[in-house]
Target: DUF4194 domain-containing protein
Amino acid sequence: MSTPTKILPYAAIVVKLLKGPVEYMEKGAWEKLLQYKLELTIFLQQLGLTLILDEQDGYAFVKHSLSEDDEAYVNWVQRRSYTYEESIMLVLLREMMAEFEISESASRELIKKRREIKEYAELFFKEGASRIRFLKEIDRLIDKVEENGFLHKLENHEVADEQRFRIRKIIKAKVDSEVLGNFQQQLMEHTGKQEVLD
Model:
C-alpha cells in the first residue's frame, strides 16, 4: 500500500497564481498567500517564476524569471500582447488610477461607470467619420481590458453605460510610472503641435 502524497498547504494558491492575479478581496486566498509568502517565493523560483506581491495595494501575481532563450525556460504563465489602441486604453485607466490616488477619496477602490470611462477615453482617441462606430470601438476596448483582467464588472445594468467597473490595482504593475510619464510627455508634445497648427 503506497503512502499518500503530502500536498503542499499552499498548493491551491500556486494554482490560483498560475491562472491570474490574486487580490486582497479574495479573503481566504489572500490570507493564505500572506501566511506562506516565503514558501511560495521559494517554490515558484524552482519553477522559474517570481512572485510579485504588493501588500499595500493588495494584489499578487507571478512572472517568468527566465528568458525564453534560457534552456530551463518553461512557459507557465500566458503572455498577452496588446494592440496600440488597447495599450492606450490601459494607459488611460492607469492615468485615472493615478488621479484617484492623489485625490482625497476615502474609498480604497476606484469605481467608474462605463459612461465615465468612455468620456475620459474620448479626449484621447481620434473620432472618425461615424460617431456611433467610434463609441462602439471604445466599448470594445473597455470589454477587451475587462477580459484581460484590468477591469472588474461589479454588476449588470439594463443600461450598458451605467455598468460599474472597479479598476483593478494590478494595472499599476502593468503600466508603471515610467510608462505613464512617457505617455504624458508624448501627450504634451502632441497637444503643443496641435496648438501650433491652430
